[in-house]
Every structure is written in C-alpha cells, then in structure tokens.
C-alpha cells in the first residue's frame, strides 16, 4: 500500500504519526517542505479572494489546500513528464500540461487554460519585440 503523503502541518491524514520533511522525521524522500509545497502566503492570498472581506480561514484549511494544490501540480506534471520522456524531450511546456490534464480527466479546464496560454504567449512575443526595438533604437 502506498504511504500517505505528509501534510505541511507535519502529520499524515491517515496515520497521524508521520512528521513533515522539515520536522526531522520525514518519509525518507529527502525533499524539503519548502520545495514540495507552494508558499502558504500565496495559497492564503488566493483563498481570501473568494471570501467576504471579514472572512477568516483556519490554519488547517490553508494547510490542507496547500497540500492538495501541491499534489495536483505534482500529479499533472508527472503525467506531462512521462509524455516528454517517451518523446525524448527534456522540457515540459504548456501544451504538455494541457495534454496531461485532458488525459487525467480535467477536460473542463482545458479551454480556459488554452486561451490563457495563447494570451501569455502573445504577450511574450510583444515583450521581446519591445526589447529588440529598444536595443536597436538606442544603438
């Protein structure tokens, strides 16, 4: 049976006895908590946007969402990485992540992310063009 993931708060959801990697008795993976999880401040900021201004979020709720988000990212990234390895590529790109999400059953998110990715790429091209323009203009 697979070992339950270690939570950012230091315990396992199933056994309650594991320690976080940073806590000194982790599951032997050698990965530091700060490398495995997204920063709690970022998670908290995003969660607060969905609440009324005076809404409060419990620490364990933040920790749980932090763990879930990080696990989701690892899940999708692992699938995309497998695809890249089969294709003998070393770099995962946005299209690989979209493919992985579709493969894993997250089809409802594909179209909004595809639109976002296209806009992001357009902005990157515009930024590069401006940089080149400034380089040549000021030479």
UniProtKB/TrEMBL annotation:
GO terms for cellular component: CCAAT-binding factor complex. It comes from the Eukaryota. Residues 1-33 are annotated as: Disordered. Keywords: Activator, DNA-binding, Transcription, Transcription regulation. One of its GO terms (molecular function) is DNA-binding transcription activator activity, RNA polymerase II-specific. PROSITE patterns: NFYB_HAP3. The keyword Transcription regulation applies. Residues 37-101 form the Transcription factor CBF/NF-Y/archaeal histone domain. The keyword Transmembrane helix does not apply. CDD domains: HFD_NFYB. PANTHER family: CCAAT-BINDING TRANSCRIPTION FACTOR-RELATED, TRANSCRIPTION FACTOR CBF_NF-Y_ARCHAEAL HISTONE DOMAIN-CONTAINING PROTEIN. Belongs to the NFYB/HAP3 subunit family. This is Transcription factor CBF/NF-Y/archaeal histone domain-containing protein.
